[in-house]
Predict the 3D structure of the following.
Amino acid sequence: MDNGLLIVTSAFGAAVLAGTGQVVRRALRARRDSAALREKIAKNQHIPRSLHPVVDTDICIGSLSCLKACPEGDILGIVDHAARLVHADHCIGHGKCAAECPVGAIKLVFGTAERGVDLPEVDEFFESSRPGVHLVGELGGMGLIKNAVTQGLQVAERLAEVVAGGGTVVVVGAGPAGLATALGLKSRGVAYHLLEQDTVGGSVAHYPSRKVAMTEAVDLPLVGRFGKKTISKEELLAGWSEVIEKAELTIAQGVKVEGIEGQDGHFKVLTNRGTVDAAKVVLAIGRRGTPRKLGVKGEELEKVFYGLKEPEQFDGAKVLVVGGGDSALEAAIQLATESSAEVSISYRAAEFGRCREANRARIAALVGQGKVRALMASQVTAITAREVELEVSGRAQRLANDFVIVNVGGELPTEFLQKAGITMRRYQGRAIGEPTTSIGLEAVGGPRKRRHAGSAEDRRTLRRLRALRVLYAAVGVAVLSYLWWRGDAYYPLSRLARLRSPFHASLKSSGPWGHGVGIVATAVMLSNFLYAVRKRGKALTGFGDIRGWLDFHVFVGTMSPLVIAFHAAFQANNLMATSTAGALLVVMATGVVGRYIFGLVPAQGGRATELEDLAATFERLRAYAAPELAHVGPAATALLDRATAPVRAGFMPSLFLRYPFEAAALRLRLRWLRRRFQDAERFEDLRRALLKLARLRWQLRFYGSLKRLLRGWRAFHASMAVFLVLTLTAHIAVSIYLGYGLP
């Protein structure tokens, strides 16, 4: 066998193996994730608590870079060949998955169709329904420290633009969001008053001792980089103290805000220590000031606490922790490991489903060791001086008890917000910022505030990306134009005429210019694999937006075969060079399919919803025509049952072959059915519904099968990329071995 053919065949075989391996790995992962999602649904653990990602399968290109992005681990999975929130009960709204989606297919939303979330209504600048009053942090649904800090910095940036000279901003709450807002304002020279009714740190100050409080470092104005990947409550509070000292922030502690009077630009903030004038007000007060209560008899006793600070104070006592979230589990863990208390934990569900996996595993280990007693599927019904009464799996039970620690979350300070004139809305699976008319938000009260699409930071990022795309286009046109100008007297010539050309020695593929172009093009082409490294690994995660990396990937992937064509002088001289060029073209073509064409094919979602609505209407028509159907017999019933059967995607060629016959058969059956119907009006309603159902069902099958076919681009793209690298390596090795100066 010819050496070139042997090399190409071997490279192709290796590429096929690599592609097959990728397909198998994805299939196994998808099977595992689909099973996990079904299990979650069966246990009613598929409903997220609050802020969570939703993947638009019409946009998703299946890069799956979002899977590795979450600091909590495998929260997302692969279901129906696209990313999907699988472990919704573990999702705490980091938002890293949305940031790591290269095509913007993920959005973060509050609430679900099954479980709404009541939150203050704010716009892209976090301004509430009362003009001039802004809300940031936990109060607006952002429970994570990193997100709260980010919001504080963003609202400070906005206020610096709109507050007139001499205006003062009052920031209420010295937690992470309030401190970040004050830092942002001071760094921009905006006057501020930072008011705190309790202690600096906000919710963090009430965390249990040594609780891990942050999973990401942040950049703060005036002080620089702050925090680390994991940091305890004590370290975080000490760090904030250093920030306050370094930035020389002024904080008025022990000041409780009781109301807000006046209007935008001329507010009077009423406090227990007098009135403070303000042009703008930022509320960063969190939720923990109003802990959620159990609502049972005896909850007012002094033995009931709403959080754990020092476990040592419960030494030797019988303690019941109530709740199933991270705070409750961490309290039980600390009591069991850092005190001599006899610990029990009560949770209303059969399993802990609202906590981190690490806490779940730790509490399970302590239960197994007998250090914690878990009372699952239980609810506290009453609290007495010496006992706690519970209902455990439907049975009444009494538990000897000295102390109860309730950790069931916090409630919004609704009364204060209503008094301040701030509208509340119920979000049911929709992102803040989307218009009511398109998403059906259920208003809790008050007129709707106008919204804007996207945050200021998002718009800046998009502007940068657009500018980069223009730059890529300009560079591409300039490079190709120069390469053609350099050889416009040589490339159009025939092979024989080229040998006589004075430019042949330089511009041929093995000449100094041609070979130089090949070296540069190869180096640039290999840089394209940096996108895969950025997408799958963590080494480059902090460098640039993932969308910018994808744009660079597309630019290099498009330019590489065009520039390589100049290296080859638009000729294919041998099998290896031809194979390399062919692989380049296939990689580029499959890349175009994956990045652009795949997203143009709609998923079944919208059509499926239309089909469900139509099927419901059809069922009502069938019930309406029940007397006639009973007269016709089981053949009519079978025909109608087939019309509403589940739709499955098929093999595309067979769909086109079968569709004319299926359509003709349906019309023949309808003719047969028409002759047996006595009520012509009822039959006409049924006939129209049946024909529309049939069309929709075929469209669903078509879109499903087309999506399935186009999903093969990933395997082709990866396989041909491997093939390209192997043949390119062999091509370079052979050219070096033979000597690139040969004619």
The longest strand covers residues 257-263. Confidence is low (pLDDT under 50) at residues 433-454.
